[in-house]
Amino acid sequence: LPVDPFDLVIFGGTGDLALRKLLPAMFHRFVDGQVPAASRIIGVAREGLDDAGYRSLVRDVLADGGGASDRIEAFLPLLRYLPLDARKDEGWEAFAALVDEQPEHIRVFYLSTSPELFVDICNRLGSHGLNGPNSRVVLEKPIGRDLASAMCIIEAVGRVFSETQTFRIDHYLGKETVQNLLALRFGNALFEPLWNAGHIDHVQITVAETLGLGRRAGYYDRAGALRDMVQNHMLQLLCMVAMEPPASLAPDAVRDEKLKVLHALKPVDMRNVAQLTVRGQYKAGAIDGERVPGYLEELDDGHSNTETFVALKAEIANWRWAGVPFYLRTGKRLATRLSEIVVAFKSVPHSIFDASAGPLAHNRLVLRLQPDEGVKLWLTIKHPGPGGLRLRHVPLDMSFAEAFGVQQPDAYERLLLDVVRGNPTLFMRRDEVEAAWRWIDPILAAWGAAGEPPRPYAAGSWGPSAAVALIERDGRTWNEDS
Ligand code: BG6
């Protein structure tokens, strides 16, 4: 759907997220004709660039990403740049004047900065009158570093922008497969009757990355994998799998159901943290045959207890999910880039087959988020041909790219335009963010009290062996059939 011309202001406009995700997302929407040419994208950061310098930086990024040069040249005039330090007064008058050049435009202020700057930036936006009804603010995760700091930020931002103007982004909610989970669960009669502790043995959620720290050491080393990935993306995925059917797709209908799941998570704290969680940190290793340095070698001072890997076992204490473990794992510098949700069903109650038929396996529904988004349903069938009844485990396999012949849009493409349209369904409501921190805080506290260093794992592996033990102790294994 087309939108009216708008202004997107990116604070942190030269940062990793802006260059890797936000600007390419805008470019792709522009190429598809969804970003009107009168729109403006204003990069703001401390670097002393001008419009030309910024355009040339973005030109290189888009060209590296394979953008056609005539399209890139058509896109670049939308870009503006203003040097600004969120903590200093100078430059804000000029900034406000630049934004005010287009009073009719919807204004999206995207705070792709450290959360410590959110309040300063919002206060200044407010004091320059830039928080009117056509303004929206987008907050990148993680919001804060624990519940208390998150609440301070949320309240301070809330004094400048109303809840309907505030978009707390979790880009995992914009991924096609995650939205497809809604279609799959609630658009088919097949799954929902089985979607409970009576039929599901366990759920696995894996988000594995091959990337290391890159340019983000300053942020990442203070955050770690639990804050960076679990508090937001992983818990949001868990909510989408576990929530009760919402009555509609109205923003609050969906968010109310997700919130109930967060409230029902069983606490993980001092008493059980050692059994239920594993933290790891990568050492040097090889990924796709290429040597990569260890985490500590990527840091300036070479010291850190920050985890780059987390595995944990969560449980949802409610009627639907009692006793069904949700195993979560995420890490940097793992063997391959892979994100998936695996719903493992219980085995049949009784086998009618001889032992010679081979073992009966569980049905598994695998939702692949990346790379190659798609859905696989593992079934047991008879091996074709004579030679008796031998059982085989095979997938019904659907790749979205093959089935629909289109490149899947990046999550940010969808979400940025949702902000312009004012649709908050795929954004986190304040109480969701708080509930997620409420569950995460005791884990952080228990880790802090235990004071143990993260377990080492080689870059290019699947994390510390303790993560394998976490699930194998329960007689289960991480999915390897993707
Ligand atoms: C971000 C995290 O939110 O998500 C990064 O801060 C991580 O550390 C990224 O690399 C992963 O996103 P995606 O879409 O590449 O899986």
Task: Characterise the protein shown here.
- This protein is of the alpha/beta class.
- Helix content is 36%, strand content 22%.
- It is built from 16 helices and 17 strands.
- The longest helix is centred in the C-terminal third of the chain and has 21 residues, at 430-450.
- The protein is globular and about 80 Å long.
- The mean pLDDT is 94.
- 6-O-phosphono-beta-D-glucopyranose binds next to loops.
Overall, the morphology is globular
Roughly what fraction of the amino acids lie in strands?
15-25%
Specify the structural class.
alpha/beta
Which small compounds were modeled alongside the protein? 6-O-phosphono-beta-D-glucopyranose
Mean pLDDT: 94
Cα distance spanning the termini: 34 Å
The count of helical stretches stands at 16
Gyration radius (Cα, Å) is 24 Å
Largest sheet: 9 strands, mixed
Number of DSSP strand runs:
17
Overall helicity: 25-40%
Spatial strand arrangement across the major sheet: 16-15-14-13-7-12-11-8-17
Query: Which ranges are low-confidence, i.e. pLDDT below 50, for 5 or more consecutive residues?
Result: none
EC number: 1.1.1.49
Keywords: Carbohydrate metabolism, Glucose metabolism, NADP, Oxidoreductase
Organism: Frateuria terrea
Catalytic activity: D-glucose 6-phosphate + NADP(+) = 6-phospho-D-glucono-1,5-lactone + NADPH + H(+)
Name the features.
Glucose-6-phosphate 1-dehydrogenase, 482 residues, 9-stranded mixed sheet, 16 helices, binds 6-O-phosphono-beta-D-glucopyranose, glucose-6-phosphate dehydrogenase activity, G6P_DH_AS, oxidoreductase, alpha/beta
